[in-house]
TrEMBL record:
Keywords: Signal
Name of the protein: YacC family pilotin-like protein
Signal is among the record's keywords: yes
UniProt key word Disulfide bond: no
A matching Pfam family: T2SS_PulS_OutS
Signal peptide: 1-22
């Protein structure tokens, strides 16, 4: 009976861990990149009125749509990753107006889903 309980417990633990996928490095980078896009829109494109709470909801919505587990989000240095993404985005040799237009077209619609 003890052996049966152990096997059952072990299999349930393994099945739980198999279905739980923590946020990977590349997924964290994607979230940092999207955060940098919103920061760029706010700082460089005239969208200063975008509420931070709505941006946070959009980031969570984005992660949920991709079925990402955010339980280990705090294990990444998201501030540093976001700052690096922002520097990369700012350094792209495209006029700011073109960047703003493309980023707003491709990203602001995400905010509409989380109003």
């Amino acid at each position: 009976m003890k052996k049966f309980v152990r096997v059952t417990l072990l299999s349930s633990i393994l099945s739980f861990s198999a279905s739980s996928h923590a946020l990977s490095e590349s997924e964290a980078e994607d979230i940092a990149d999207l955060t940098a896009v919103f920061v760029f829109l706010k700082n460089d494109c005239g969208y200063q009125n975008l509420p931070n709470s709505q941006i946070r909801r959009a980031l969570v919505f984005f992660a949920q749509q991709n079925q990402w587990d955010l339980s280990n989000y705090d294990s990444f240095n998201m501030k540093a990753m976001g700052e690096e993404s922002y520097r990369d985005l700012s350094g792209i040799a495209v006029p700011v107006e073109k960047k703003c237009k493309a980023l707003s077209r491709d990203s602001l619609s995400l905010l509409a889903y989380v109003k």
